[in-house]
Amino acid sequence: MSTQTGPRTLSQSTEEMRSHYLKCGVSVDCVIFGFDEGDLKILLVRRGVEPYQGQWALPGDLVDPDEDLNVAAVRVLNELTGLNNVYMKQVLTFGEVHRHPLGRVFTVAYYSLIRIDKYKVNEGNWAEEARWWSLQDIPDLPFDHNLIVETVSENFRSQVRRQPIGFELLPNAFTLTEIQHLYEAVLQTNFDVRNFRKKLLATGLLIDTDTFTRHNAHRPARLYRFDKRKYDRWSKTGFSLNM
């Protein structure tokens, strides 16, 4: 049997092709960001199986041979964390040869950003625990999960600078301070208050409700809501806050 490791040749049989090339596994890993009172967190599970039993990791697992990738991502997230009805976007594929100790496994990373208080997390399947972690407190993760978190985070932040966020994360009516805290948490930076508000209002993305906060120890703050049509349009075509 041929031991060639390069591109296939005309002389290779179907069986040789199957034996040499079709021996890799595929998994999905879910990077679920959660916004919680001005803090950006990430959902991790504590593994109850080998390899790396007892360690915290991203919710992820192998894809069944007859299973669609998107279906697998939804299934795995639900089985390990109890989360359902979470829209996830496929982002990147990671395929370093020795990333998995049991063999060659490519993993496809998905991500989502949700409002934590709208979802209940429960451990399940082989996950002994499921918990939200602040990004700055993430422990050393097995496999290449730290790299996945870092890479997906960078990709996500780049997207946030081009597309609006907050429609599902903020109340129907919110203050400029609340939306600034959201952007600061996601982008892991601080903005000048006057500059941020000036540029955000200039987009026309927000509608002044002509109402104010109540029962607040501080000065009442003006409340805004999103212009849904502009939000949906810029979610597809993109825009830039240019902060």
Walk me through the structure:
- The chain is an alpha+beta fold and 243 residues long.
- It is built from six helices and nine strands; from the N terminus they run αββββαβββαααββα.
- The protein has helices at 14-21, 69-81, 145-160, 176-187, 193-202, 228-237; strands at 25-36, 39-47, 56-57, 60-62, 89-94, 105-115, 127-134, 206-212, 222-226.
- Strand 2 (39-47) and strand 3 (56-57) form a beta hairpin.
- The longest helix has 16 residues, at 145-160.
- The chain is elongated, with a radius of gyration of 22 Å.
- The model has no long low-confidence stretch (mean pLDDT 91).
Topology of this protein?
Layout: H1 14-21, E1 25-36, E2 39-47, E3 56-57, E4 60-62, H2 69-81, E5 89-94, E6 105-115, E7 127-134, H3 145-160, H4 176-187, H5 193-202, E8 206-212, E9 222-226, H6 228-237
Parallel strand pairs: 1-6
Antiparallel strand pairs: 1-2, 1-4, 2-3, 2-7, 5-6, 8-9
The helicity comes to 25-40%
Low-confidence stretches: none
Number of strands: 9
Oligomer kind = single chain
Q: End-to-end distance, in Å?
A: 60 Å
Radius of gyration: 22 Å
* Element pattern in H and E: HEEEEHEEEHHHEEH
Indicate the overall shape: elongated
Main attributes of the structure:
alpha+beta; two-stranded antiparallel ribbon; seven-stranded mixed sheet; 243 residues; 26% strand
Brief account:
With 243 residues, the chain is an alpha+beta fold.
